[in-house]
Amino acid sequence: MKYQAIQNLITDEVENDPGGVGYKEAGGAWKSVDAIWALGTAENQTEPDHERKTARAILAAYGPDVTQDILDAFTAAAASHSGLAVALGAIQDYGENGGLDFADQQTVDAIDSLESSGVLTADQAAKVKALGVKATSRFAIRGIPTNRKHHVRRAREAWEAAQ
């Protein structure tokens, strides 16, 4: 991405603050470069994570007991739900095409259905759905590079020059 485009994104992010981050001082002046950088790159936002995940992701996130409970619930319900049998197979497939996209709306709807039918507890459903969400920053959401603070410095300098 060209420098001017990045500067325009940063200026728009700071001036309009669509995420309500608070890049400006009370009087409307931009905060320091370090403060804007810290606010813009803080991973305190979420976005869908469409990476396909297997049982290993559940294990890494929640440990063996929770993972076993969730897989047991899926296994028990798979006998009467053909779609769930396919999903269980995908979760247990560690190959290149294995895993499920836990951010996919059909997957989320299926998890909700499993919860409402008592197959999964509310806690289990929440944990499985959380695999479909990842932490990110406002800058990453806007496509602003998060590895170059000098872009913020230059955008702030341009804003100061225009004042």
List its salient traits.
163 residues; 8 helices; two-stranded antiparallel ribbon; 59% helix; mainly alpha
Notes on the structure:
- It is a single chain.
- With 163 residues, the chain is mainly α.
- It has 2 domains: 68 residues, no CATH class; 88 residues, no CATH class.
- Helices cover 59% and strands 7% of the residues.
- Helix 5 packs antiparallel against helix 6.
Number of helices: 8
Proportion of residues in β-strands: 5-15%
Structural class: mainly alpha
| Rg from Cα | 22 Å
Low-confidence stretches: none
**How confident overall, as mean pLDDT?**
92
Helix content estimate: 55-70%
Strand order of the biggest β-sheet: 1-4
Distance between the termini: 26 Å
The number of domains = 2
How do the helices and strands follow one another from N- to C-terminus? HHEEHHEHHEHH
Largest sheet: 2 strands, antiparallel
Q: How many runs of DSSP E, i.e. beta strands?
A: 4
The global form is: elongated
